[in-house]
Amino acid sequence: MSSAVTAGAEPPIDPIILREAAEWLTRLHEGDAGPRDWEAIECWRTTSPAHGRAWQRAEALLGDLRALPGGPLRATLERSAARRRHLLRMLWLPLLPAAGWLGWQQLRIDGERFRSATGEQRPVTLADGTRLLLNTDTEIAVDFHTGARTIRLLGGEILVTSAPDPSPVPRPLRVVTQDGSVRPIGTRFSVRRAHGDGASRVVVFEGAVEVTGQGQRARVDAGQRLEFGASGPGRAQAHAGVGDEAWTQGMVVARRMRLSDLIAELDRYHPGFLRCHPDVADLRISGTFPALARERSLQLLAETLPVQVRQRSSYWVTVEPIQTGA
Amino acid sequence: MSDAGTALRQDVHALYSDHHGWLRAWLRRRLGCGERAADLAQDTFVRVLSARQAADTSAWREPRAYLTTIARNLMADHWRRAELERAYLEALAAQPEALVPSPEAQLLILETLLRIDACLAALPALTRRIFLSSQLDGMVYADIAAQQGLSLPTVKRHMSTAFVACLGAA
Q1: Which helix (H) or strand (E) holds B84?
Q2: Predicted complex ipTM
Q3: Domain spans of chain A?
Q4: Torsion of the alpha carbons at A138, A144, A150 and A156, rounded to the nearest 10
Q5: Type and span of the H or E element at A308
Q6: Cα(B19)–Cα(A250) distance, rounded to whole angstroms?
Q7: DSSP helix, strand, coil percent of chain A (3-state; round to 5)
Q8: Residue boundaries of the structural domains of chain B
Q9: How many CB atoms lie within 10 A of CB B72?
Q10: What DSSP assignment string belongs to A26-87?
Q11: CATH number of A250-321, picked from 3.55.50.30, 3.40.30.10, 3.30.450.20, 3.40.5.10
């Protein structure tokens, strides 16, 4: 059976360690568990790789249990018949790595880094069900084990569709950049931070977020965007509607955008340099451009504006005024 | 090793040709459905093959008793699955439409449900009840202890036993 192959790939975990994980799970559900318990679990979990794997299994179980609806199901589960014990012994091996476990394999992320290449968009589902979309050239580090669910945006842009924490002691979700942190309130939003210098930007599509930076706080509601950098969060402004979300569909939407801004935007999606000649930088352009297909975007530009695309090499491309009569 | 493998295949082949038709009829009488009986007869032989490596051959001396033991368990599993599926669909029907998961998610939840049910089946009824009170009803241990007339440490012990079983450490 295929499940047996998976079971073989994963080295078995010492039952003593699994029992300790069970003790932690027991503690978490007692009713008065708090952040200190998470700290203690963090200590325990990092003792060895086997402890880490045991805890991954424990967290997967938490997610599984949380997914079960109550009501009529509760009574049916309670009637679980003893005659099945015999059956269970036979089924044990094939059952353990069933769909839930297999699904979990893909979600292993604790403390892990995720990167998308330039020109790539990468969906990631975190252990708690939070869904991310990494835009081009983006790097994040995810840490769920310090009493908070922290997504550190090291550079690039992410779309976050947050999910409630499946653990019995909910840990707050937050997105942290070097400029501050964004705390969602049941929501879908994106955060962008250029690698290196610059500021961070949050755009909220559903729900709301709270931004903290430089000791100041600001709330951003659906339909708004906010920049926050060295001088703390600014004021929330209405966002550009579909334009700010277009990247999640692999598009850049321009509305009377300066050509140099559009070029800078398209540049993010391709390795090498895409530059705009100063003489055409202030031309205005409107349209929808496929961010991930740069050639096509540049062709659209050349068809719409009095510009030409000059390929010095595939890594060095400039958009210049049309040379007439040359 | 390969000799043993060949011998096993011959054994199973003999078992299959001698008893498959009989087993199918036996199952059909109990299930009242020819198609399902054929499926379960097939599953029974698959189980024989996969259980064979570890099992002792003495069980094979009574082939029909051996086959019906496996088939009975598979039938119990089949009915249990149907029962859980029905209960799950009932639970879904009671939820507001916006909260109903997609069909793919439903299938995953059902798999999860079967797995957790299999873990719980090995536990004493009281442990199962305490665990479900905590996990499905969201009760804290102190309340479960009061409701069941047990001490707090006893409730914790039952919870720990259940988690051990679900983590596969039992």
Answers
A1: helix B63-93
A2: 0.73
A3: 2-106, 113-243, 250-321
A4: 0
A5: strand A307-313
A6: 60
A7: 35, 35, 30
A8: 2-84, 97-166
A9: 16
A10: HHHTSS---HHHHHHHHHHHTT-HHHHHHHHHHHHHHHHHHH---THHHHHHHT--TTHHHH
A11: 3.55.50.30
B49–A contact, CB cutoff 8 A: no
Q: How far is CA A188 from CA A8, B82, B154, in A?
A: 39, 37, 43
For chain B, 170 residues long, the average pLDDT of each consecutive 10-residue run is 64 83 87 82 82 59 82 82 82 73 78 84 89 88 93 96 83
H-type helices in A68-98, by residue range? Answer: 72-78, 84-95
Question: Which is more confidently placed, A3 or A128?
Answer: A128
| Distance (Å) of CA A48 to CA A14, A17, A52, A55, A170 | 12, 10, 6, 11, 25
Structure tokens, B112 = 């999860």
Alpha-carbon distance values, B101 to A313, B97, B132 (Å) = 50, 9, 22
Q: Give yes or no on whether A113-243 and A250-321 have one common fold.
A: no
Q: What is the nearest CA distance from A169 to chain B, expressed in angstroms?
A: 12
Distance CA A195, CA A24 (A): 39
Contact map slice: B 122-161 vs A, CB within 8 A: 122-123, 125, 128-129, 132, 134-137, 140-143, 156, 159-160
- Report the residue of chain B nearest A92, measured CA to CA: B118
Query: Are residues A153 and A175 in contact, defined by beta-carbon separation less than 8 angstroms?
Result: yes
3-state DSSP call for residue A139? strand
Instruction: Please classify residue B98 by burial: count the beta carbons closer than 10 Å to its beta carbon, then call 0-12 exposed, 13-18 middle and 19+ buried.
Output: exposed
Q: Which residues in chain A are closer than 8 Å to B121, comparing Cβ atoms?
A: 80-82, 84-85, 87-88
What's the CATH fold of domain A113-243? Jelly Rolls (2.60.120)
Against a cut of 0.80, is the pTM above it? Answer: no
Q: What is the pLDDT of residues A88-109, one digit of tens each?
A: 333 333 333 333 333 333 333 3
Alpha-carbon separation of residue A242 from A158, A253, B102 (angstroms): 16, 8, 26
Tokens of B13: 């082949």
Residue given tokens 């924490």 in the structure block: A165
Relative to beta strand A180-193, strand A273-276 is unpaired
What are the beta bridge partners of residue A216?
A213
The A residues from 99 to 158 touching B (CB cutoff 8 Å) are 99-100, 103
pLDDT above 60 (res A77): yes
Angle at A256 between CA A251 and CA A260, to 5 degrees: 75
Q: How many residues does chain A have?
A: 326
Q: What is the CATH number of domain B97-166?
A: 1.10.10.10
